[in-house]
């Protein structure tokens, strides 16, 4: 999606409606800096604001995401193009978050092992040994918790029995047996347990 084009379209429609950035922001319950960011092409409106924004600007969601008015004969094609672009962006964002998950997981595990190694082989003071042990476990617990939080919220799991795609709870992910990003969990749809793979999008 062309964020700059979308931003210019939002700005033009706002001016056509004789609204200031502050006034439009007040209607949406957000700051005028957020409106400014959209109009400068530095970000896209959050989905929770899109419908109301489109209502105020008297445009459709497809027109908003395209950054221009759409002729009726091209409407269906533009809608499909926008859906494909949004799906592509979702996959890209999910892959990016999974990369962060790996970095956090490997980083916290490495710090844990380094601190344990130091406390065993290089530190003689008992109090300092205990402090290093405690710090190592704190790093590991925080790192694993953050990594699992990312894994829970990004992408979906697919049941191998009924192929239902869903987002499990943090508790389900935390306590499930796993290898890599495949976990043994109960599907909320068919209530059967299976090894469920992580997928990027529905």
TrEMBL record:
Give the record's keywords alphabetically.
DNA-binding, Membrane, Transmembrane, Transmembrane helix
Supply the name of the protein.
Answer: XRE family transcriptional regulator
Any GO molecular function: DNA binding
Q: Which domain of life is it from?
A: Bacteria
Q: Where is the HTH cro/C1-type domain?
A: 10-64
TM region(s), chain numbering: 99-121, 127-148
Organism, by scientific name, is: Faecalibacillus intestinalis
């Amino acid at each position: 999606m062309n964020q700059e084009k979308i931003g210019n379209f939002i700005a033009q429609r706002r001016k056509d409606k004789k609204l200031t950035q502050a006034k439009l922001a007040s209607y949406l319950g957000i700051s005028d800096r957020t409106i400014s960011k959209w109009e400068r092409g530095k970000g896209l409106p959050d989905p929770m604001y899109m419908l109301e924004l489109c209502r105020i600007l008297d445009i459709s969601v497809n027109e908003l995401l395209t950054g221009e008015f759409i002729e009726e004969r091209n409407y269906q094609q533009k809608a499909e193009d926008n859906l494909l672009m949004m799906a592509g962006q979702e996959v890209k964002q999910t892959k990016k978050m999974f990369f962060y998950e790996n970095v956090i997981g490997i980083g916290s595990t490495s710090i844990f092992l380094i601190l344990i190694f130091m406390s065993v082989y290089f530190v003689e003071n008992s109090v300092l040994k205990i402090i290093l042990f405690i710090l190592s476990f704190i790093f590991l617990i925080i790192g694993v918790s953050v990594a699992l939080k990312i894994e829970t919220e990004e992408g979906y799991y697919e049941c191998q029995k009924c192929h239902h795609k869903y987002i499990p709870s943090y508790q389900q992910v935390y306590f499930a047996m796993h290898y890599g990003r495949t976990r043994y969990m109960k599907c909320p749809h068919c209530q059967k347990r299976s090894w469920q793979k992580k997928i990027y999008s529905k």
